[in-house]
Each structure stands twice: as structure tokens, then as C-alpha cells.
């Protein structure tokens, strides 16, 4: 699917994926041959090679890192504020036998550590040009955005509600669902071009879908009451968001 998108001329700067994709040596080799950077999650027992230590498990390599190797960086904003983690990286070489003629580029092992629990996650990274740590962190964080979009598609437009009896019906259903999701996403971006009223969060995709249903698809008689509830939800969410930001700021001090 990824190679078909690239063959079709899709503009791709980076590819992000979970451990299934990180373990696919052929996929990594194909992306490197095409000069496409990637940040792919790998399991703790995944093996990589470094110039000095040879082949080793990624968790063993990360365990040897000194305290000064870790940096606190945000992987992007979430519903509860910035996603701050501790990050570290190690320059690696290729370990796949098929990579003997691997193209020139830069390869790293990226590690993410939860600041509260100490839980670790690992990523195998490649870029045809040298990239700063912050760029790899942002790409790793974009995978969460993709997963959130899938969840939104399921919850707001019924992406997972088809019975999948035939290819044609599934294709039609999925196309209509994605068009509906696209409409909501574009409307959300257009609405957020203007600043939200003081004390309210900007209109979210979920809220726009709710208002569209109540005011257009299945109109209610009392429009004023519907809008009043919308303002109440946005005001309540703004207060909760500010409380999360304050708590996060206090924890980081």
C-alpha cells in the first residue's frame, strides 16, 4: 500500500508505523532505496548494529546510555497538553543481510521513556539527510495523530460499522465514510481560522458533527437550547483543559 502510494506520486516526507512495520526489513529497504525517511517502532528484542558494539538488542543498548543522553521533548500536543517524554538516540548501521548495498543515509535507534512510569519504547529511524532529534520525535508523534483519526472515523462517521460482505459494498461504504470525515475535518479547520470566544475551546470535529446532526440532518425544534448546550460543553472542556495544563506545568517543575 505504501509503495503504491509512492508510485502514484503521493508527496511523502516521512513514514511512521508501529512494530509490525518496524519488523519488516523489506519495507525499510524499499523506503531507503526511494530516499524516504522513516520512524518505525520496533520490539525490545529487535537487533541493530552500532559501529562500536556490533549487533545487540535495542533494550540492551538503551540500558547502557548515561543519564545525560536523555532529553525532554514534546511529541506534539494532545487533549491534555503537550506529550512530554524523555528521548535518546544512538547512531546505528544496517543489520539486514539484504542491506549490503544499502543506500547512503543516516540511521538511528530512537528511544522514548515515559517520565512517570519509566516505560520504554523503541524506534528504528532513517533519513537520507542528517536530521535533528526533534524532527524524529515529531515524526514519531504523528503516528498518534493517524491513530486518533482512525478512532474519530469510527466514532463519528461509522468507519467500522460495515458488515464487509463484498469488496464492492465495503469500498462504497468506506469511500462515503471518508468523504463525510473529510467534510468534518475541513469544516473544523475553517472554523478554527477564527479565534474561539474567551473561555471556550475551539469547535472540535466531534462538536461540529453533533451540531450538524442536530441542526441540519435531524433538526430540533429548540435551536437555542441546542446551541446553549454546545457552549456549555465547550466551556466545561476549556476549564478541564486549563486544569490539565496547570497540573502538567506543576509536575514538570
UniProtKB/TrEMBL annotation:
Listed transmembrane segments: none
Record-level Gene Ontology MF annotations: DNA binding; transposase activity
Domain Transposase IS4-like residues, every copy: 14-182
Pfam entry (one): DDE_Tnp_1
Gene Ontology biological process terms, A to Z: DNA transposition
Record protein name field: DDE family transposase
Amino acid at each position: 500500500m505504501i509503495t503504491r502510494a509512492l508510485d502514484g506520486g503521493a508527496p511523502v516526507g516521512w513514514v511512521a508505523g508501529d512494530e509490525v512495520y518496524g519488523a519488516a526489513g523489506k519495507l525499510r529497504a524499499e523506503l531507503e532505496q526511494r530516499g524516504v525517511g522513516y520512524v518505525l517502532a520496533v520490539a525490545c528484542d529487535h537487533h541493530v548494529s552500532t559501529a562500536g558494539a556490533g549487533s545487540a538488542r535495542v533494550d540492551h543498548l538503551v540500558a547502557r546510555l548515561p543519564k545525560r543522553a536523555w532529553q525532554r521533548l514534546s511529541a506534539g500536543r494532545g487533549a491534555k497538553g503537550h506529550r512530554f517524554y524523555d528521548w535518546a538516540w544512538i547512531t546505528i548501521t544496517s543489520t539486514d543481510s539484504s542491506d549490503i548495498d544499502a543506500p547512503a543515509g543516516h540511521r538511528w535507534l530512537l528511544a522514548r521513556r515515559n517520565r512517570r512510569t519509566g516505560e520504554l519504547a523503541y524506534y528504528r529511524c532513517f533519513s537520507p539527510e542528517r536530521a535533528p532529534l526533534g524532527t524524529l520525535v515529531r515524526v514519531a508523534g504523528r503516528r498518534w495523530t493517524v491513530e486518533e483519526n482512525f478512532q474519530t472515523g469510527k466514532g463519528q462517521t461509522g468507519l467500522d460499522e460495515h458488515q464487509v460482505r463484498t469488496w464492492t459494498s465495503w469500498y462504497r461504504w468506506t469511500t462515503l465514510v471518508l468523504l463525510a470525515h473529510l467534510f468534518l475535518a475541513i469544516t473544523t479547520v475553517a472554523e478554527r481560522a477564527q479565534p474561539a470566544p474567551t473561555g471556550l475551546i475551539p469547535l472540535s470535529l466531534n462538536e461540529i458533527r453533533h451540531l450538524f446532526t442536530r441542526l441540519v440532518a435531524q433538526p430540533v425544534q429548540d435551536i437555542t437550547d441546542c446551541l446553549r448546550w454546545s457552549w456549555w460543553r465547550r466551556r466545561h472542556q476549556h476549564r478541564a483543559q486549563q486544569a490539565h495544563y496547570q497540573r502538567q506545568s506543576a509536575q514538570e517543575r
